[in-house]
Design goal:
Blueprint lengths: L16 H23 L7 H12 L1 H18 L1 H4 L6 E4 L2 E3 L23 H10 E4 L28 H4 L29 H37 L1 H15 L3 H11 L4 H12 L1 H14 L3 H8 L4 H38 L10 H10 L4 H28 L8
Antiparallel strand pairs: 1-2, 1-3
Length: 406
């Protein structure tokens, strides 16, 4: 019996040309859509974090405070380009120099001193005759002394004088090329004839950097300590909690004053002293989150599957605890800056001569006849702390599941 095509079942028959074309077309269609499928990636943020980000942006005060603070911080990060007594770039005899990055001896520009004073008229005339200089907008650093101020230090802002008074101490008077906007003291000088605006710019940077480093280090130590307490509980939690209670009862300010009076002042020494006590603020919130979540079903399931304790703490419990920690960070940063300012105001902070908002406030207290000192320091400090508080409130509301903005 011969086997014909009609006697075969539909599954055994060879495909017809139309079916072959359809199959080929479908395959080519899949190949064409493959790039589109590959191009479709999951969103960078989860739906929960997208909602948090939208809530943060909906808080207009916190959103604009973050932008203003970020702009101010970025500007002060490049303080050497904004306020400096050295030019940004020099072209001298067809060679280029960057004094803000490298200290050149004066012999490079025809002098003989080991350090070049770019405000010296001889150096300026020599460079001007053989090239050019690009100065920062403010031609003073935080430790630059202005010897041409019209009145004894502390001197009022330059804009409060007439042009003749402002240029009276310059060799050529009103015709002197150095009697220009770049050499103005826009907010006056302090009691050592240093430019107040330059010291504010550098002081803002060092205050924020100090607060950021202290807050980050405190968060690492405090989160680790709170995680260990909350996860293991029992005697570990009990003993650690008694230690924290004793450690927190120590008068921090008095101890800081004693240690700062014994040890030589410095940025890192002061940071280490304050770090001894600032980490305690994070322990409570992290410990509470770990105590609450350590017996959840997914944690017990992970233990039953043989997952290690440290893996459970890092992958499953820490993300939940970080919500409370992140809402706490801006306020800890605020407190760190305030503490540094207080120590500088009392004279136990950064080394003498360092640009500091607290030192400027102390000068304002000692020189009541120069109100621009205290007012300038107060305005900058209050603006900085207010912006951080507004950002912290917006972060707190963004992570609050009951909070929504329209």
């Amino acid at each position: 019996m011969t086997d014909t095509l009609e006697s075969r079942s539909p599954q055994d028959r060879p495909p017809e040309p139309a079916m072959l074309r359809e199959a080929q077309g479908g395959a080519s269609g899949i190949a064409q859509n493959a790039p589109n499928i590959a191009a479709t990636r999951p969103p960078r943020l989860s739906p929960l974090n997208q909602r948090r980000w939208q809530n943060f942006r909906a808080n207009r005060r916190g959103w604009w405070s973050l932008w203003i603070f970020a702009v101010l911080f970025v500007v002060t990060l490049f303080a050497e380009v904004v306020a400096n007594d050295k030019p940004i770039l020099i072209s001298y005899k067809n060679e280029y120099y960057a004094p803000i990055f490298t200290d050149y001896p004066e012999e490079v520009f025809g002098g003989f001193l080991p350090v070049t004073n770019y405000r010296d008229p001889f150096i300026q005339d020599e460079i001007g005759a053989n090239g050019w200089m690009i100065w920062p907008p403010i031609r003073y650093s935080y430790n630059s002394v202005n010897n041409e101020i019209p009145t004894p230090a502390p001197s009022p802002p330059s804009w409060s004088f007439s042009k003749e008074e402002r240029c009276a101490r310059y060799p050529q008077g009103v015709n002197d090329p150095n009697c220009a906007l770049g050499n103005w003291n826009w907010l006056g000088t302090d009691d050592q004839a240093r430019d107040v605006l330059a010291r504010l710019i550098y002081g803002f940077r060092i205050s924020v950097l100090f607060g950021l480093v202290l807050t980050a280090a405190s968060a690492v130590i405090g989160v680790f300590a709170g995680a260990v307490q909350g996860y293991f509980g029992g005697w570990v939690d009990l003993l650690f909690q008694r230690f924290i209670e004793i450690w927190s009862s120590i008068p921090v300010l008095y101890l800081l004053l004693i240690v700062a009076a014994i040890l030589p002042p410095g940025f890192w020494i002061l940071l280490g002293i304050m770090l001894l006590f600032s980490w305690v603020a994070f322990v409570g919130v992290v410990r509470a989150e770990f105590l609450r979540a350590r017996n959840f079903e997914y944690v017990n399931a992970a233990r039953a599957l043989g997952v290690g304790d440290w893996t459970i703490m890092g992958r499953h419990l820490l993300p939940n605890a970080m919500v409370a920690t992140l809402t706490f960070l801006p306020f800890i940063l605020n407190g760190s800056i305030t503490t540094l300012t207080s120590l500088d105001f009392l004279g136990f902070g950064l080394p003498p001569g360092s640009p500091s908002l607290g030192e400027l406030l102390s000068q304002g207290r000692n020189n009541l006849q120069a109100p621009w000192l205290g007012i300038s320091g107060f305005v900058v400090l209050s603006l900085m702390l207010s912006l951080l508080v507004f950002v912290g409130e917006a972060v707190r509301d963004a992570f609050d599941p009951r909070k929504s903005f329209r």
